[in-house]
């Protein structure tokens, strides 16, 4: 699979000609080049990842004063590190709903060695089949239909590099926040396409005198630094999909597919389905499309109203990405699981399905 260029939000401090990241990078090649963008200034860097730290060495020499804390974007043209598990093995296991995660390190190494020794394509194919056939089925919830793990996109898997159309509408709206939210949900998110005339009508409803442009410009989706690793790992536990509220103007399906395939089976933006969270039909539509029961769905999102309340109303099990926020309301124990960030989602789902790593 070819490398995919990635842009990651990073933070850290300068020390001489090095930028020391606050968090170690995981899943990206070391000793290769990238571009660090801070306050609109781009600097070529060399990525140096060690056991417990990642350092970006600035090619142009000293960058800023020692100890200066900054945040910015790291552009990595070479993308993700090559996966240890052969693509055809992962694809076959996913297609047959077999659980590769049950293999410990020694078993996985044995399986990969067994596969790598096959020279002829037909022998390699037979060995893939033998390995996958020996694996147990992926876990199921309460013995029912296979697990579906759905993710919200904006705010959960990543964010836009520029204000989205709804964000711009909210900022300019003369209506109350609740009225603005309802108008955007009802008049924008479910439309399969948005014209200038449509935008003018929505702006009029919101009391905005001049219609906003529907040009996306150079806007792009920036994934959370852990998103790809989390989605990839959870694809072993069930069918991974996305369910998102997004306008047709802001949707960049091509980029989402480049970032998250083959681990995400399908994408269900509101402008495609015509269903807007928290409406339970958004969850029902996605489950019906992948042939699963909504009761077997685990939904992960950062919006309490759209993702948590919507999932509960549909009969799914929600995981709320709190990012340190308190729960807006009290819930019965176990009704809603809380993860501070995406990294905490994996162990929560592992415990839910009762699978061992």
TrEMBL record:
Keywords: Hydrolase. Transmembrane segments: none annotated. Residues 158-175 have a biased composition (Polar residues). GO terms for molecular function: hydrolase activity. Pfam families: Hydrolase_like. Residues 158-178 are annotated as: Disordered. The keyword Cell cycle does not apply. It comes from the Bacteria. Coiled coil: none annotated. The keyword Signal does not apply. This is HAD superfamily hydrolase (TIGR01549 family).
């Amino acid at each position: 699979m070819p490398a995919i260029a990635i842009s990651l939000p990073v933070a850290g401090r300068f020390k001489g000609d090095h930028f020391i990241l606050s968090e170690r990078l995981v899943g990206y090649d070391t000793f290769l080049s990238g571009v660090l963008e801070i306050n609109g200034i781009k600097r070529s860097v060399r990525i140096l990842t060690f056991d417990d730290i990642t350092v970006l060495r600035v090619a142009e020499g000293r960058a800023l004063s020692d100890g200066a804390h900054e945040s910015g974007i790291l552009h990595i043209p070479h993308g993700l590190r090559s996966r240890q598990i052969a693509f055809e093995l992962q694809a076959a296991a996913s297609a047959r709903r077999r659980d590769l995660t049950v293999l410990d390190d020694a078993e996985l190494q044995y399986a990969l060695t067994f596969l790598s020794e096959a020279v002829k394509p037909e022998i390699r194919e037979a060995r893939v089949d033998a390995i996958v056939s020996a694996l147990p089925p992926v876990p199921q919830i309460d013995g029912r239909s296979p697990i579906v793990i759905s993710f919200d996109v904006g705010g959960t898997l990543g964010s836009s590099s520029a204000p989205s159309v709804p964000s711009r509408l909210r900022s300019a709206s003369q209506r109350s926040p609740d009225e603005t939210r309802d108008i955007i949900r009802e008049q924008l998110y479910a439309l399969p396409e948005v014209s200038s005339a449509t935008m003018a009508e929505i702006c009029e409803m919101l009391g905005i005198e001049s219609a906003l442009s529907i040009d996306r410009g150079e806007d792009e989706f920036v994934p959370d630094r852990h998103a790809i690793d989390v989605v990839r790992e959870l694809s072993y536990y069930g069918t991974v999909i996305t369910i998102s509220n997004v306008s047709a103007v802001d949707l960049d399906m091509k980029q989402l597919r480049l970032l998250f395939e083959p681990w995400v089976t399908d994408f269900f933006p509101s402008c495609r389905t015509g269903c807007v969270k928290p409406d339970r039909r958004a969850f029902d539509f996605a489950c019906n499309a992948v042939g699963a029961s909504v009761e077997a769905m685990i939904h992960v999102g950062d919006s309490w109203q759209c993702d948590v309340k919507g999932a509960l109303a549909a009969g799914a099990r929600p995981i709320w990405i709190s990012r340190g926020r308190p729960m807006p309301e009290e819930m019965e124990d176990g009704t809603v699981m809380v993860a501070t960030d995406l990294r905490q989602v994996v162990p929560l789902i592992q415990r839910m399905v009762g699978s061992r790593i």
